From TrEMBL:
Organism domain of life: Bacteria
Name recorded for this polypeptide: Glyoxalase
Gene3D superfamilies tied to this protein: 2,3-Dihydroxybiphenyl 1,2-Dioxygenase, domain 1
Annotated region described as Disordered, given as residue ranges: 78-105
Cited InterPro entries: Glyas_Bleomycin-R_OHBP_Dase
């Protein structure tokens, strides 16, 4: 989570509005709009139950959309990221903020400037009871 917060701090320090981190049960994600207007997502599984890739990754389905087995193996086991901490930069104010444009403005104006603690509470998600986790 520290690495995710460090990336959020870096983005916010450069004027980007960052939505999250939001818990999805199996991971935490944060969203922002890149300079070209595309919505971006960073996520981590740190602090979440370990999920077995075999239950979530279908090599045959991936192949139908042009993902090679080599690329799929790399996606399942990405290289490590080395950060220096994070979590202290607040969301930028609305003036001059680089807005995550794919998030509808009414939703962003309601949630986008909440404190991180308030957003986490508003977006709390619990995994389904029957969700399978690795042991």
């Amino acid at each position: 989570m520290a690495e995710l917060l460090e990336m959020r701090d870096r983005l916010r320090s450069n004027g980007y509005a960052v939505f999250g981190p939001v818990s999805h049960g199996m991971n935490y994600s944060m969203y922002f709009s890149g300079p070209e207007g595309l919505q971006m997502e960073y996520s981590t599984t740190e602090g979440c139950p370990k999920v077995e890739p075999k239950g979530w990754v279908d090599a045959e389905a991936a192949g139908t959309i042009g993902i090679s087995r080599e690329d799929l193996a790399r996606f399942v086991n990405p290289p490590a990221f080395t950060g220096k901490g994070g979590g202290e930069v607040p969301q930028p104010s609305g003036d001059g903020t680089i807005n995550p444009s794919p998030i509808p403005e009414p939703m962003f104006s309601q949630l986008g400037y909440l404190s991180d603690a308030d957003l986490a509470e508003a977006m709390r998600f619990a995994a389904p009871e029957n969700a399978e986790h690795a042991h």
